[in-house]
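Entry 14. Structure prediction run on the chain below.
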Amino acid sequence: MADETANAQGTAGFLFEMGVLKNAKRTGWWFTGNNNPESIAEHSFRVGIVGSVLAMMEGADAAKVALMCLFHDTQETRIGDIPHIGRRYIDAAANERVTADQVSATHPAVKAGVQRVVDEYENGDSLEVTVAHDADKLECLLQALEYRAQGNTLVQDWIDTSLNSLKTPSAQALAEAALTMSPLQWRQTFLGQ
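Output returned:
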C-alpha cells in the first residue's frame, strides 16, 4: 500500500509540474518585442493538433505523433525555454535526462511510457518522429504569422527558419498555404455565406 500511495503522489506531483507549462512563456518571442508571448502549454497544444493533422496527411500514426508532440517540451518546467541563441552559451541537460528526473517518482507504467515517448522524439528516425518535428516547426511558423498579422514586423527570421526546416510534403504544403492567407481567413467559410 505504501508503494501505491507513493506512486500516486509521485504521479500527481508530475501532473502538477506539467501545470507550470501553462504559465511559462516561450522566450524566443521576446526578441521580437513581444512582451506577452504564448505559453509553452499553448504551443504544445497546437503542436499536438498540427502533428495529428500532418500524420493523417502523411499516413503516419496520428495518436503516436500527438503523444510525442504533447511531451516534446515538458522538460521546460525544469530548464525553461532556452532560445536558440542561448543554446550557444548554455549546456543544458539532455531532454531524456530531465524527463527521467521528472517521472522518477511516478507510477512505473507512467515512468516507462513517458520516457519511451521522449526518447523516441529525441532519437528516433521514424516517419512519426519526422512528422512530430515538422509539427513543432510548423506551429512556430503559424504563430509567427499570427504575430505578424498583429503588427509585429520582427518575426521574419522565425518564419524563414521554420519554413526551411520542414521535411514532409504535407508540412511544406500547409506552410506555403498559410503564407498566402490571413490567420482569420478560416472564418470566411461560415461568415461569407
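The radius of gyration is 18 Å.
Filed with the rest of this week's runs.
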